[in-house]
Fold this sequence. Notes:
By secondary structure, this protein is mostly helical. About 60% of the residues lie in helices and about 10% in strands. It has one domain: Winged helix-like DNA-binding domain superfamily/Winged helix DNA-binding domain (Arc Repressor Mutant, subunit A).
Amino acid sequence: METEDSRSTDERLPEMLxxxxxxxxxxxxxxxxxxxxxxxxxLRSVSQISGSVPVDLSVVSRHLRTLQRIGIxxxxxxGKEVYYGVDSRNLVRTLRALADAFEKCCPNGCSLDxxxxxxxxQSASAETRSHVPD
Length: 134
């Protein structure tokens, strides 16, 4: 049975910003694999997936395990064959929660227009003056 994470988005933000997630998502081969599985909208075996990327089958298997570990893919074993598919529910939930967390902490977009920059400089300058010993 699947359970929803009862922690707030604020509590989950450090985990969502994990280097492992972004490292996994920044590899071109993994992006190609994710694209292949997303457009297929079906489960694919490791050998079927390997046909869409120019790397060895063993390397494809490693990439698939990495994407599964960060919650982007699910796998199903049938006999000796392992099939993978996109866990779109989890991927969308993670990306949406990440976007929501940024919107919550920075409701105005944390824009750095000239006025905000001046305000920040004045604030930093006042803070520096308040910490200077007499």
